[in-house]
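Hi L., both proteins are below.
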Amino acid sequence: MNAVASQLAKMTEALPKEISSTAWAFAKVSYDGAIYHTIGKIAESKISQCDAQSLSNLVWVFATVLICPQPLILSISQAAFQCLHTFGAQELANTVWAFTRLLFIERSLCDAISQMCISKIESFVSQRT
């Protein structure tokens, strides 16, 4: 893992989806380390290029590892607010969960997400069978 982590600084040319997917993979295997600082810096520089899935994945990553880089989380929330209409049920659910876990509450974003969830209520499905 350390060899991979040291290569992350070279990801400045990566697409936002590649960055969020890489971050997601590290969080999924419970990797612990300074890697998230590097990912956060790279991701922050590409926030304006992120789609709903990338934004949702990024905030999920940091919530999963309980790291809250405030500038990045604020940038994600602002970008999410701007493109919230493109979020599907999964992105909405993951984003709400992540912001809640990070104790990040921005009233206008919460209100907008609530309205979007209500409008897409039929799209939500239980993960339990």
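That was the first. Here is the second:
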Amino acid sequence: MAGNRGSENKDERIQKFLEINLLYDFYGKLLTKRQSEFIELYYNHDLSLGEIAEQYSISRQGVYDILKRAEKILENYEKKLGLVEKFQLQKQKLSKLYKMLIKLQNVIEEKEKALEEISRIKEYLEEVI
């Protein structure tokens, strides 16, 4: 069971990482320069709190607080504007349309094959008759 908890925590961290990166893609320009830099360093360049703290000569707690504040701001923008949710819904709809188009293409190809076979049979019958 302990192994499952570890994988759940890892899965949760990965999910959080993906969520913050997506929110940052949409709303990152609305953060302060410092918040944006910390999000970039922590999430995109995989620096630890300690490494960021050292670069900016502040405490690890200070880095943590700035990151949490920036994450909260990004989440609040999404709650108010919903651009990420709209984007994901649009992406799902486009994916469904693409699959429908492929299916239609396959149906057309099958019909073309059937028509070609009918023509061959017709030619054969004409030879026989």
